[in-house]
Amino acid sequence: MDKTNRAVALVTGASSGIGFAAAKALQAAGFDVFGTSRHAAAEGPEGVDMLTCDVTDDASVATLVEDVLAEVGRIDLLVNNAGVGLFGGAEESTLQQAQALFDVNVFGVIRMTNAVLPIMRRQKKGRIVNLSSAQGFIPAPYFALYSATKHAVEGYSQSLDHELRTLGIRVTLVEPAYTRTSFDENLIRPDRWIDAYESARKGMTLAVGEAIRKGDTPEIVAETIVKAAVASKPKLRYPAGKLARQVSMLRRFVPAAAFDRSLRKMLQLPV
Predict the structure, then answer these.
(1) 132 is catalytic
(2) 271 located within any domain
(3) Would residue 133 show up in a list of annotated catalytic residues for this protein?
(4) Residue 210: C-alpha distances to residues 13, 53, 207, 261 (Å)
(5) End-to-end Cα spacing for the chain
(6) Residue 158 resides in a domain
(7) How many CB atoms lie within 10 A of CB 130?
(8) Which of 61-70, 154-163, 226-235, 254-263 has the lowest mean pLDDT?
(9) pTM exceeds 0.90 for this model
(10) Higher pLDDT, 184 or 270
(11) Of the candidates 145, 251, 270, which has an alpha carbon nearest to the alpha carbon of residue 207?
(12) DSSP of 211-253, one letter per residue?
């Protein structure tokens, strides 16, 4: 039996940044919100129940979902936000490092989704919002592996949405550009350095840091997540913020060669 009359949202990675802002915004929008963090006793927004979960661990994910069901009896919305970044030349990461990145950013999304889908199928309704990125639909030099995880999430989400529509469940993507979080400070670095990339890497480091400082606030992305969560006729993709909307438009309508030049100029790479 449902223990709450309010819709129940589950937000991964809710202890900081976009996840924190999303949990807070969903709670303000009328959801009963559960947030997750990899570390026990992490603080979340006021009114949000924080639980521990490692999205790379099957047992941890199963326990999380069981605990939420025991508390409120339902899950109406899953926001797959937990993720990590990796900055460096693609060649500079070993296969093991790439696999670890995919385990969080892609298989973590799949684990969480597979855990809640039986509940949503029984309810005959549900919404899944997956955090992608503008780097999920454009090239991302020196973020090639991170970008690859977001491209994977895009393809997975688009295909899954087609599978689930007849069951009353929808899947949507939220695509931020640069956001004012500690993303750049928490980036994983390659596990080997190659001198040939050093000069361009330094320029990219400055460009990315500046872009993040001028980026959108997490609250702007959170507003987009709420929009995707409550829309009666949800779209597949929701660019979050002015830059993300501009890039999405340019990618669709600007000739490939011109877009390539513009991207390299913006990132301070030789054209």
Answers:
(1) yes
(2) no
(3) no
(4) 24, 32, 5, 20
(5) 61
(6) yes
(7) 26
(8) 254-263
(9) yes
(10) 270
(11) 270
(12) HHHTSB-HHHHHHHHHHHHH-SS--SEEEESHHHHHHHHHHHH
| Phi/psi of residue 39, nearest 5 degrees | -110, 140
Per-residue model confidence as pLDDT tens digits over 187-206: 899 999 999 999 888 888 88
CA distance 22 to 220: 9
Q: What's the structural domain count of the chain?
A: 1
| Catalytic residue list contains 147 | no
What's the domain range around 193? Answer: 8-266
Judged on CB neighbours under 10 Å (0-12, 13-18, 19+), 236 is middle
Whether 155 is covered by a domain: the verdict is yes
Determine whether 238 is an active site residue.
no
pLDDT tens for 95-107 read: 999 999 999 999 9
Q: Which candidate in 24, 37, 93, 132 is catalytic?
A: 132
Give yes or no for residue 3 having a pLDDT over 60.
Answer: no
Closest CA to 13 of 103, 96, 104: 104
CATH number at residue 143: 3.40.50.720
- 2 lies in a domain? no
Tell me whether strands 32-37 and 49-52 are parallel, antiparallel or unpaired: parallel
* Catalytic site residue from 93, 133, 150, 178: 150
